[in-house]
Amino acid sequence: MAGHDSGASAKKSSEASNDMPIFNAENMQNNMKVIYYSRTFLSIVGGVVAGILGFTGFTGFVFYFLVMAISSVGLIAKAKFSVHSYFDSWNRLIFDGFLGGLMSFVLFWTFAYDIVHIF
Length: 119
Hints:
There is one protein chain. It is built from five helices and no strands. The protein has helices at about 5-10, 25-55, 60-80, 90-95, 100-119. The longest helix is centred in the first third of the chain and has 29 residues, at about 25-55.
């Protein structure tokens, strides 16, 4: 993951009273792509696992939200628990792409369930 631009933050003006971090737009965009791709991949894997384990109804959706919570914790651990060095807010890391992988999850969940338990 790419961090914020430390060279720009090292230059402090005498008038600036608060130290605001300056983020590189390319690094932020790359970090958001990492979140999106990892959540999509884990949604697909989670859907296959939920289908193989035979989850149906509400338990499948609970499993999805559990997988997304674990992925959020994993991304926070990857950022070494200093989220503001890599993202502008906690919301970006925890909630961004949270529901984006739901359709992929449901697709692979039903596909794996049909293959294992119906056919």
